[in-house]
User: Fold these one by one.
Assistant:
Number 1:
Amino acid sequence: MVDEAGFSLVSPLKRTWAPRGHTPTIRTSLTHNVRLNLIAALAVTPAQRKIRLHLQSYRHSISGDEVIRFLEHLLEKVTGLIVLVWDKHPIHRRRQVKDWLARHPRIQVFEFPTSAPELNPTEFVWTQLNEYTANSAPRDAADLSAKVFAAIARTRRSARRLWACIFASGLPWERPTT
């Protein structure tokens, strides 16, 4: 399951607490041009014994070239057949991506229905990263990267968090036996 997301200096806001009578103040940036764009895949072994988060980041918009680089990364890291499920985003349908996939039969592609992000488990990875970075107000690109990569590390090292992304989706999965 593959998906893309972007993070900026405008951190997501969520509910917080403060002593009664002291309204919390959360500093945020008005700069929208500093972004960190991510492409990720949750990879599950056929026997469902292992789950792994593969991820690449970019300081520029993700195009068909980056999608192809990410798919090449998956081919290097994952042995055997790859069943790839992603949404109908235009970058997945670019001619160069389709041509590249046609030359790599080890990757079989399936698409989620239109307007059904809740079915994509990788969307729940973004939810975890947003939760972790909420109210953090990064100061610059380096601070943004540090906060996002701390969130990625937290999610990546926890099989329980990764499986939670799978089970949160509307896909039919059986719980792995461990």
Number 2:
Amino acid sequence: MKKFLLAALLLASPALAADGVGVGGFDININITPVLTPSAAYSANNVVGGLQTANIFRTRLQTSGLLGWINMTSVGGQTTSITVWGFEKKPTSTCTDKAAFVLATADLPYLIPGFPVTVALAATNGQTPSSGFTSFIPPVSVQNSDSPTTTNLYFCATTSGTPTFATAGDLTFGYALIQD
């Protein structure tokens, strides 16, 4: 009987079915490979790859969860530390590849708790690719604050050094979420 009622509700409201009502509690892992400027040195505090829009929530009706970890891999073996700024609302801050990062005051209320975080790339046994990992213990509670609501979180990575990336796709960022 319960299955019949749920099916009837979903059929009666296609918008609810399309938004994935009842979906939750799943681990969501997303990888983003931002477009970098290759073969040219970045300066300290430069944005690496521009604004990353992580379409990480399964539904616009349930845009909250626990951000568990961030990882980063460099195909070219870069080992420069990267600082990642996380936002629950699309930021107005300057987040353009190879430009100086400027945090807008209006974005401060939307910083994900515990951010920014630093991810240190460490080459393993002198081999490439190198990878870095950071985790949140306990995981950080997040929710989308866009108006109207979207299924996104936003990230902006900056460099602490002067790396030169070999290719436009040298870095990949991974984000893990457990949706409510």
